[in-house]
Every structure is written in C-alpha cells, then in structure tokens.
Amino acid sequence: QVQLVESGGGLVQAGGSLRLSCAASGRTFSSWTMGWFRQAPGKEREFAAAIARSLTTTTYADSVKGRFTISRDNAKNTVYLQMSSLKPEDTAVYYCAASRTIYSRTYYYTRPENYDYWGQGTQVTVSS
Length: 128
What we know:
The chain is mainly β. 0% of the residues lie in helices and 46% in strands. The protein has strands spanning 4-7, 10-13, 18-24, 33-39, 46-51, 58-60, 68-73, 78-83, 92-99, 117-118, 122-127. Strands 2, 4, 5, 6, 9, 10 and 11 form a seven-stranded mixed sheet that branches. Strands 1-3-8-7 form a four-stranded antiparallel sheet, with no helix packed on it. A hairpin with a 4-residue loop joins strand 7 and strand 8.
C-alpha cells in the first residue's frame, strides 16, 4: 500500500517562505511522476507543480512560476515544494500526489485525475 505524507505547512506572513515535504512509502518512488496540488475553500483542486521521475523535467502553474520550486530526492523517497514570496491567495490545503503512468505530454500531469495516490494534505495559510 502506497502512502504519501505531507508536512511543513503552517502560518506565514505575505512575502515569507515555506518548504513542504512529502514522504512516500513504496519501492518504486523513483519511477513515479510527483505533483503538488492545492485547494482553497470553496474552490476546485488546482495544479501547482510536478516533477518527472528523471528529476530534470518540471512544470509549474503560471500562478506559482518563479516563486515555487519542486524537487525530489529519490534516495529518501521524498518530494519537496519550496514556496517563496508567498501571497494571501496561496492559502490552501496542499496535496502531494503520485502518478504511475508515463504520459507523452506534461499537460496530463496538471490534471488531478491522472494521479493514482494522494496524501492527506497540509494547510498553508498566508496572512496579509
């Protein structure tokens, strides 16, 4: 059974930084594409960032590009989301997700339905 456990959320002032971590169980972590999604109250879950198993391919939502950085450590079965220059509109529950499927286009990794495993989420609150 695959488990994803997020940590690192919290309350931060606008302009501040946080680093989220997602620890995964399972021996095949290095073969998964990993993604971060977020969901604000009353809104749909939206894509934030993804990183391919190769570690060299990343993709970001326009809303976070230049402020967030996704990375992974396959030796530790962990994926990270470094968030900087945080804004109140970044407030949401952040979810880590894993996709076992290899898609030909990175677009598919921006869709939550293309992920197989999900964590329980960690709350990020940015105060103004």
